[in-house]
Amino acid sequence: MNSTITKFAFLAGAAYFVCMALAHFFGIKLPILFVYYDTPFYAYQDKIISFAVLAYVALFYSASKHRDVALTAIIVLALTVLGLSAVNVSSALASVLIAGQSTIPYWLQTGAITVYVVVLVILYIKDGKNS
Questions:
Q1: Exposed, middle or buried, 127 (CB in 10 Å: 0-12/13-18/19+)?
Q2: pLDDT of 72-120, one tens digit each?
Q3: What letters, b where the CB count within 10 A reaches 16 and e where it falls short, cover 24-38?
Q4: Taking the mean position of all CA atoms in its chain, how far away is CA 104?
Q5: pTM for the model
């Protein structure tokens, strides 16, 4: 069973992903809601991303209610961190950046998501010891 704090941690993730989906759907390019907020984009791609992010909303909402889903949500988000890291060092990203443009903002956002993953892992383990 998830503790109250774990439930809220997963619900916070679901709320974050709702905001991210809305930002992508409406093209509101804000850091935190758009990891690559200052790169070229196509509006139709952001609409697709917004619908895909709804899967994260459902996953994290379900994880807040059911402990057996929590580990899956954590793994999926950890894989997302790996994917973002791969993009951050990719030549594809480098090719759309302006000469001298730093990837530090993307790494900071990737790092923030990593911290969230670590918090979820700690809560998940703590809840397991208390059950």
A1: middle
A2: 999 999 999 999 999 999 999 999 999 999 999 999 999 999 999 999 9
A3: bbeeeeeeebbbbbe
A4: 17
A5: 0.93
Cβ–Cβ < 8 Å for 21, 50: yes
Question: What is the distance of C-alpha 43 from the center of its chain?
Answer: 20
The amino acid present at 30, given as its one-letter code, is L
Q: Which two tokens stand for residue 78?
A: 């950890």
- Helix, strand or coil for residue 89? coil
Q: How far apart are CA 102 and CA 97, in angstroms?
A: 8
Q: Tell me what the pLDDT averaged over the chain comes to.
A: 96
User: What tokens appear for 6 in the block?
Assistant: 């774990």
| SS3 assignment for 13-60 | HHHHHHHHHHHHHHCCCCCCCCCCCCCCCCHHHHHHHHHHHHHHHHHH
